[in-house]
Amino acid sequence: MDDTRDVIVVGAGPVGATAALLLADYGLKCTVVEARREPQSHPAAHVLSTRSMEIWREIGLERDIRRLSAPMHELRNVLYCTSLVGPELGRVPLADLPHAQIDAIESVSPTRSAHLPQNVLEPLLWQTLRDTARIDLRTGWQYSCHTDGADGVSVTVTDVTTGAYRKLAARYVIAADGSASTVRRALRVTMDGPVLQHLISVHFSADLERFRYRRRGPVIWTHTAKGLGAVIVHRPPQDLVFQIPYFPPFESLEDFPAAVCRRHILDAVGADVDIEIKSIQSWTMHAQVADRFRVGRIFLAGDAAHRFPPTGGLGLNTGVADVHNLAWKLAWVVFGRAREALLDTYEQERRPVGIAATADSVANFEGLFEVVAALGIPRQAVRLLPRSVAAIPEWLPRRPVRALIRGLTTLAYQRLRLANSPSRVGNRIRRRAAAVIAGQGPHYRSWGRDLGVRYQCGAVIADGLPSPSNDPQFYSPRVRAGGRLPHCWVESCDGRVSTLDLVSRDELTLLTSAGGYTAWSAAAEGLSMSVALLGDGELGVFHTGIAGADPDVLVVRPDGHIVAALHSDRDGVASLRRALAVVGAPSSAKALVHE
Ligand SMILES: Cc1cc2nc3c(=O)[nH]c(=O)nc-3n(C[C@H](O)[C@H](O)[C@H](O)COP(=O)(O)OP(=O)(O)OC[C@H]3O[C@@H](n4cnc5c(N)ncnc54)[C@H](O)[C@@H]3O)c2cc1C
């Protein structure tokens, strides 16, 4: 196979794989270089947001993902309890919301969020990569180094088994090689922000059905006198994960053999049950964003660009939205539809989103301390312990320091004993915890955050309107320049489609009502722009929520974000030319034909 590609994608995790599939859908040829030979078998992400599902819907993957996903009844609530058999402390409803609220959530998108473990998602993505003619997936090869030149990038890749190397050439590179990104290090891009915690992740299978009868949910937080934990119900019974905090450098993965992990899980369950441990991994929770998302012809995406706590389930989803933002820009530049400068808007638009997602995820993480504080352990104690341990000189003997850490944590966890007690004190503590848990909604419900992303600068003409109320939990469609085009169902000659389906991939799209159609399609004449007409019942997509501010037309980019919200009293031709200029597109030039 010819080694010259439009794009080399480093990493076939969810972000790299999605990038390659989007690029191929635009007609670009890519090589995906992936160090592993098999998809990841240890589950990590599981919450796939509505926006991610919209993106996968564009490339025909939504149905397969939905088919594999957990049924709705598995997503009823996020649960907090002492142990699985012990008293419940509280719950945050997800699918268990009132019907009217579920209807409202479902009305804002042609699809909805899903719950699918990463170890099931990745094989599907890899198979699709293999089935896609424009994609050359090379597993067992890793990025080693590169040289960035005027016309393209030369990437040296190494066979992980034999050490054999070869050079690949491409016009651009997407580094989606995860949180420890080698490409990022080679580019000397730094990550700003702290390390928050170190965790052991135990992948196990067990039949927990009898304990989950009234406790259906994707996450169950446990609080026992022996420790804090989280059971992630990825795909019961075979894919369950238990997370245990640990304290390097005085503790390491070796301190958590299967027998120790099994003891932790049994304590969290609170009853005897058969457990098969499948794998044990350690991971580090950061709150960091790369200082640059683009260096020359190389773009960082996903965890390579931002790594933050999984509290809120934003990591994979933010990465998928990164590459959705980048794919059309790369395609347009490669095909000569837009100038190179369009590529600079990737960092301008996506870095603020990465920073916001990091801040939200940290706030969600800290919210967990409030629950623990309500149960009697001061939040500062939980928050400061990892930092204090990190400050202990490494040359001190490991064993006594480890004993000290265990002594301190055991002492602290003893306070959780009361939450299990049937006494009046126990009742009071549980009521206090329930009140705090009731306020944890924004941690898990993030439709507003997910669909409300708005680019304030980049390939956008600001409309000067204030941001709509930023409820992270529930999204209300309010049109804004830079925001995602609101969804509504539209009758077309192809049947019922979403407004999102009206958006062209090759040109900007002008959405207008019947009233403005004649004037605006005349203004768009000769410009490289497609015009879509909305019926009277579909005009909600122009709704700003501000009296007198609703635009008459919207100009929309291929990723469904609005470049400009325009009014009919302005010079239509000049406004449309400005919209084309801001995405670096010539007004009427024909696209170069890509060979
Ligand atoms: C416990 C836990 C729960 C989570 N839950 C959620 C959730 O519910 N929702 C959510 O959105 N996110 C969640 N996340 C975060 C999510 O897992 C990550 O954000 C996501 O995996 C990032 O995807 P990625 O493709 O950027 O990176 P990765 O998944 O890390 O993939 C990177 C790929 O690059 C490959 N690679 C690395 N180096 C090289 C190299 N030199 N050459 C070639 N290939 C290389 C790796 O083998 C890997 O396949 C969770 C994370 C954890 C730890």
Describe the structure.
- With 595 residues, this protein is α+β, with helices and mostly antiparallel strands.
- It has 3 domains: 4-70 and 116-192 and 287-359, FAD/NAD(P)-binding domain (3-Layer(bba) Sandwich); 195-286 and 364-444, D-Amino Acid Oxidase, Chain A, domain 2 (2-Layer Sandwich); 452-582, Glutaredoxin (3-Layer(aba) Sandwich).
- The chain is 33% helix and 24% strand.
- The chain has 16 helices and 26 strands.
- Strands 1, 2, 7, 8, 9, 10, 18 and 19 form an 8-stranded mixed beta sheet that branches.
- Strand 23, helix 15 and strand 24 form a beta-alpha-beta unit.
- Helix 9 runs antiparallel to helix 12 (424-438).
- It is globular and about 75 Å long.
- 48% of the residues are buried.
- It binds flavin-adenine dinucleotide.
Quick structural overview:
33% of the residues lie in helices and 24% in strands.
